[in-house]
Design goal:
Elements (H helix, E strand, L loop, with lengths): L1 E5 L11 H13 L5 E7 L5 H5 L2 E6 L7 E8 L2 E7 L1 H4 L17 H18 L8 E5 L6 H7 L6 E5 L7 E3 L19 E2 L2 E3 H8 L2 E4 L2 H6 L10 H6 L4 E3 L28 H12 L9 E8 L5 H6 L1 H6 L3 E8 L1 H13 L4 E5 L3 H10 L2 E4 L9 H7 L3 E5 L2 H6 L5 H6 L5 E3 L4 H15 L2 H13 L5 H16 L1
Parallel strand pairs: 1-2, 1-6, 2-5, 6-7, 7-11, 11-12, 13-14, 13-16, 14-15, 16-17, 17-18
Antiparallel strand pairs: 3-4, 4-5, 8-10, 9-10
Helix pairs in contact: 4-5, 9-13
Length: 477
């Protein structure tokens, strides 16, 4: 089977979050199912060197205001199709945001172009290769089935939701500029409360829908989590599957990670202490009797980091330490910087993102905090499991599906791998932190949980097989 992935980012080439990690890992896992995947992403400036080694396989004279071409290149074990369109993608700043921190004003054109080219490849092939199925990822690829359907093409499309909160909403007056037929602008199509929704287009018009964990698949059919799309998803319930994310266990390996100062494994945990000392040093933290907690996250209310601010007194009362790496809402950034100043040696904050440091933090921390108010799947808790950095998580979405809470029953059964809390508020987060600290003070209990966590399957094998089944189902729908 040939499958075309259409996405806005792909690790290790360009990454702003977990979406990129998934797009970079799943094609490799699908190879075991005899699925050949090509990944279509924009040729952002950061990919100039990669594009320079590519071969042109498609040329477009005018793609929403300028010339474009598609280049094919093999790198990092992936077959990549790069959409080179300088007028849309060759610019400074984030791939989604300008230097002022605001969305690019033409993001509708930029990602409509990505979807349009994905549809062209689906219809006509590229370089002698044609997809049997298209897998469109998140709102940036949501218009793929719209362009296909208005062209009369029936190539099967699977729409994957990585986070339903981001929907690609634009003014209805943009229909013509985006090359969309007015007949699509209906409640059963791409219309969403009077606007164009790229994500809704994908959900309404794709053959099948997947999201990144079974619990999140159920949650988004509710008013609380569906972000206004719950009715559509309930109507399409038979076509929705929740397939749990995995991680690339070759990239995330405490035995071979080049970012660690010392390797370790479930058989021999000794090296973790050296990594902990390095994390403590990098964040200016002093030794304490409690565990070292870490946070690697966007600093947003979705991620529940305001709840953690309320719980800093709990951490300090347990003589625990906190190392935080992230960026996001200015108020939260400043609050954690201020907390570091007040709690010198106990709380350390680095604003920004550093991939290598994130690996070191997983390798050197005792536990990782993920108090998200909602979380489609999450990957940081999977990295935590892999590195024996026990996750403390809210009981929602993929966090609920991947972590076995250390309650009394789980401890008796010998299967706990972390700590869950619900309802999602500061009181219960504080209780979970206290439970983790209590367990940490029992070295044999803690070491046993670490080893169970590290042996827990977190790869893509089972999920790749599930994707294959969805693709087969889409072909027959």
């Amino acid at each position: 089977m040939n499958v075309l992935f259409v996405a806005s980012e792909c690790a290790p080439f360009i990454k702003t979050g977990g979406l990129a990690d998934v797009i970079g890992a799943v094609p490799k896992a699908l190879a075991a199912e005899d699925v050949s995947v090509r990944v279509l992403i924009p040729a952002y400036p950061a990919l100039a060197e990669l594009a320079g080694s590519g071969a042109e396989v498609m040329a477009i004279a005018d793609l929403f205001g300028g010339p474009a071409r598609v280049l094919t290149v093999q790198a990092e074990g992936l077959d990549v199709l790069l959409l080179e369109a300088g007028h849309l993608f060759d610019r400074p700043g984030s791939i989604y945001l300008g230097p002022d921190g605001q969305d690019w004003g033409d993001n509708d054109l930029r990602f409509a172009a990505l979807s349009f080219v994905g549809a062209q490849i689906a219809m006509n092939g590229v370089g002698g290769w044609s997809p049997d199925v298209v897998n469109a990822h998140d709102w940036q690829a949501g218009l793929v089935p719209a362009y296909l359907r208005q062209s009369g093409d029936q190539t099967p499309v699977v729409m994957t939701i990585h986070n339903i909160a981001f929907q690609g909403l634009f003014d209805a007056t943009r229909l013509g500029a985006l090359g969309l037929d007015a007949s699509l602008f209906t409640p059963d199509g791409i219309e969403y409360f009077g606007k164009i929704s790229f994500l809704k287009a994908g959900l309404a018009l794709a053959n099948k829908i997947t999201t990144v964990s079974p619990t999140y698949a159920a949650e988004i059919m509710t008013l609380e989590f569906g972000m206004g799309l719950d009715g559509l998803l309930r109507a399409r319930q038979a076509d929705v599957s929740g397939i749990l994310n995995g991680i690339d266990v070759d990239v995330w390996s405490p035995e071979a990670d080049p970012e660690l100062v010392a390797p370790y494994s479930a058989r021999s945990l000794k090296g973790k202490a050296k990594n902990k000392a390095e994390v403590m040093s990098r964040f200016g933290l002093e030794p304490g009797a409690g565990p070292l907690f870490c946070v690697v996250s966007r600093l947003t209310s979705q991620k529940g980091l305001d709840l953690l601010l309320e719980c800093l007194p709990v951490l300090e009362a347990q003589d625990a330490r906190l190392a935080l790496l992230g960026s996001g809402e200015p108020g939260l950034e400043q609050a954690f910087v201020d907390a570091s100043r007040r709690s010198t040696g106990r709380v350390g904050t680095i604003i920004g993102y550093d991939e290598g440091l994130s690996h070191l933090m997983q390798g050197g921390s005792d536990a990782i905090l993920i108090p998200s108010r909602f979380e489609p799947c999450g990957l940081t808790q999977l990295y935590g499991l892999r590195y024996g950095t026990l996750p403390v998580v809210a009981r929602t979405g993929g966090l609920a599906d991947t972590i076995i809470d250390a309650n009394a029953a789980a401890e008796l059964a010998g299967c706990a791998t972390g700590f869950q809390f619900a309802p999602i508020n500061a009181t219960m987060l504080g209780h979970a932190i206290t439970r983790a600290c209590t367990a940490y003070r029992q070295p044999k209990t803690w070491a046993a949980m670490m080893r169970r966590a590290m042996r827990h399957p977190v790869g893509w094998d089972l999920s790749a097989a599930a994707y294959f089944d969805v693709y087969r189902s889409a072909q027959s729908s």
